[in-house]
Amino acid sequence: MAPSRPAPAPYHPIVPVLLEPWEAAVYLGLTEDGLSRLIRDGVIPVCKLGGRPRSRVRIRKSDLDALIEASVNPATSGPLAK
């Protein structure tokens, strides 16, 4: 019998979920180049880990969710219009 894996730690809303750039690109349905362009243009903020010019960057999932929410155009007609 194989040993079972421990259960993952529960998600806590105070701790931000950090995504690697490729994960953020998949989450948004973009290419990595497209995501890099949005980061370069300041549309998506990043967290730099380390203090060097080529430090690793991570993106908060909450920032991506806020970007998506701000980009939603409400329906003007039909059953979803208010």
Describe the structure.
Helix content is 34%, strand content 12%. It has 82 residues and is an alpha+beta fold. It has a 3-stranded antiparallel beta sheet. A hairpin with a 6-residue loop joins strand 2 (47-49) and strand 3. The termini are far apart.
Q: What form results from the Cα inertia axes?
A: extended
Q: Please compute the radius of gyration using only Cα atoms.
A: 17 Å
Strand content: 5-15%
Counting DSSP H or I runs of 4 or more residues, the number of helices is 3
Helix and strand succession? EHHEEH
Kindly report the spatial arrangement of strands forming the biggest sheet: 1-3-2
Question: Quick summary of this structure?
Answer:
The chain is 34% helix and 12% strand. It is an alpha+beta fold. A 3-stranded antiparallel β-sheet has the order 1-3-2.
What labels describe this entry?
single chain, 82 residues, alpha+beta, 3-stranded antiparallel β-sheet, 3 helices, 3 strands, extended
List the helices and strands and how they pair.
Elements: E1 18-19, H1 21-28, H2 32-40, E2 47-49, E3 56-60, H3 61-71
Helix pairs in contact: 1-2
